[in-house]
Structure formats: C-alpha cells, structure tokens
Amino acid sequence: MKYLNIQNGPQQVSAIIQGCMRMPALSASDAAKVIRTAFDCGINFFDHATCYGHEGEAETRFSEAFPLTGIRREDVIIQSKCGICPERQEFDWTKKNILSSVDDSLRRLGVDYLDTLLLHRPDLLFDPAEVAEAFDTLEQSGKVRFFGVSNLIPMQLELLKKYVKQPLCINQLQFSLEQSQLIDQPLYMNNKTTEFSVNRDGSALDYCRLHDITVQAWSPLQIGMFGGTFIDNPDYPALNEALNTLADREHVSKAAVAIAWILRHPAHMQAIIGTMNPAHIQDICAACDVTLSHHDWYALYLASGKFLP
Ligand SMILES: NC(=O)c1ccc[n+]([C@@H]2O[C@H](COP(=O)([O-])OP(=O)(O)OC[C@H]3O[C@@H](n4cnc5c(N)ncnc54)[C@H](OP(=O)(O)O)[C@@H]3O)[C@@H](O)[C@H]2O)c1
C-alpha cells in the first residue's frame, strides 16, 4: 500500500480507500470480512455517506461489522458525507441538516467523531455563512476533525472558502479511465470538433492541485454512474486488451492496472474502490506495487477511446 499526507487533513492515509456504498447488501459477518481484508491489505480509510442504503444502512452495517474485525477505531480514518437527501428528493446544506446528519452518522457508525466530513453534492440553495456556522459547531464539539467537499466546482469552493474558516482539504470527484473528464479538456482545448474540449467542471483538478486539496476518485471502475464495470466488458475491447497486456506484464489483475492508472497521475489522488468481494480487494491493492511508465499511462488513456489532437 502507498500512503500519503493530506495537506491540512489526516496524515499517512492509504492511497486506496474502501468505499462502503455497496455494504448494505452484505451481512454483518461478510461486511467484517470486507473491512478486515481491506485493512490487512493496508487500507486505513473508509468512505461513507448518509445516503448509502436506506436511512444510512451502510453506516449501520459498518458499525455491526467493525467490532468483529478486532481493528481499533483509532487505527482507521472514517469519513462520511452529508447533504444528499434521497427521501426528500433534495440536496440540503442547511446548518440544521448538516448538524443532524453528523449526529445520525455518529450514532449509526457507533463512533464519537468523524475523521473527515464532506459535503456530498452542492445544494443549489446553500448559504455559505450557514455552512460555516455548522462547521464551527462540529469542530468545537470535537465531532469532526477535518472538512471537505465532493462534486464541487472551483467557484463554489471559493465561495465556501470566503466564509468557512476550516481548510477544505478534500474534493471527491468521479475519475476513471472511462470517466476521465477531469483531465480531458486541457488536452483538446479550443478544439470545436470534439466533445472532449468542453470544460465541464471549471478545471476542478488543476484548482485542487493549486490549492492543496486532495482529490478522491470515486467509482474508478464504473461506466457512467452506475453502468457496471468496464473490466471484462465486451463493449470495451481495446481498453481490456491494453489493461490485459499490462496486467500480464505486472502479474496483477486488470482492475489493479486501472487503479494504478489513477494513482500514477502526479496529483497524488486517492482511489475509492467499491468492491465488496475480498478477493477483488486483494487484487486491486496490488495496484500500489505497479509502476506505470509515461508511455503505459498514455497507452491506457488512448485505449479508453481518446486520441491525441
Ligand atoms: N462522491 C460521490 O458522489 C460518490 C458517488 C459514487 C460512489 N462514491 C464512493 O465511491 C465508492 C466506489 O464506488 P463504486 O462502487 O461505484 O466503485 P467501483 O470500484 O468503480 O465499482 C465497484 C463495482 O464493480 C464491481 N466489479 C466488477 N468486477 C470487478 C473487479 N474485477 N474488481 C473490482 N470490482 C469489480 C464490483 O462488484 P464486486 O463487489 O462483485 O467486486 C462493484 O459492484 C463508493 O463505495 C462510495 O464510497 C462516491
């Protein structure tokens, strides 16, 4: 496993994060196997959200499973996210909702603090002064150690930063070989013959790098949002062939190569994996032993359907 220090955030965190979005499908004992396997592979970071599973079921399952693992609370980073309210069909960054969401997460997770709290997706009605008050309350009470965001464009980060006094140390964004919009636009800039030239996120990656905000890449193996994985998918023959060539050379799985491709980027991102299969977790963690060359990285990028302008 590789470890990194998040500027103004937790230190010595694993480059691979275990996402818990899919944990509600598991029994407590199977969830314990996932957590223990991830931990034994060197993963010390677990990602949650209030909206994973009905009424926070992922957090509940995690707390049922965690005591079965023998891992100490202080040896892991527990992150949760708030602001997406599926039952109410709205996004909500009001002070009231942020505070009650954290209380709910702490209760469900059975812990007395979150290492990191992220605002999950922008509430179009958010008032940055209210967010600032909520963060102050959470920091002063010791319920949250560090703060960040997810799916946020740079200008809204700037707006938040004008009011919030805690550093915003993380922006969790979608990024993978299949969903590479985060890096495509600068390559094709000013080219009106391709969709890749559209700036869809206000240059979020460069902004995060300039401001020492760690990017956490979510759904690193997915097609679109919930389209299944591109690994072994017949609709992605060129990509699978390129992954296979490097997987054979490095004696790892194709999924590990796809994760190594994310970790190879000099932004020092973390990759949040979502598998609930312990064997897949072990396979993927081998990504940290793979060193992709400059050429390997481009070969994978091109095999994912992009071209050099
Ligand atoms: N901030 C946001 O808006 C946001 C949005 C979505 C997700 N997330 C976070 O990102 C995490 C990861 O998302 P994700 O689950 O979509 O990630 P993912 O790692 O891209 O996808 C995991 C899925 O791919 C499947 N899969 C198939 N073959 C696989 C293989 N060879 N190796 C590994 N997995 C394989 C897994 O099935 P098996 O379980 O059978 O292996 C699982 O269903 C979530 O848990 C959550 O924490 C954040």
Order of secondary-structure elements: EEEHEHEEEHEHEHEHHEHHEHH
Radius of gyration: 19 Å
Strand neighbour order, sheet with most strands: 3-4-5-8-9-10-11-12
How much strand content do the residues show?
15-25%
| End-to-end separation | 35 Å
In total, how many domains does the architecture comprise? 1
Helical fraction equals: 25-40%
**Unreliable residue runs:** none
Here the CATH topology equals: TIM Barrel
| Average of the residue pLDDT scores | 97
Name of the CATH class: Alpha Beta
Which structural category fits the helices and strands? Answer: alpha/beta
CATH architecture descriptor text: Alpha-Beta Barrel
Bound molecules: NADP nicotinamide-adenine-dinucleotide phosphate
What's the shape? Answer: globular
Q: Can you summarize the main beta sheet? A: 8 strands, parallel, barrel
Strand segment tally: 12
CATH superfamily, by name, is: NADP-dependent oxidoreductase domain
Number of distinct helices: 11
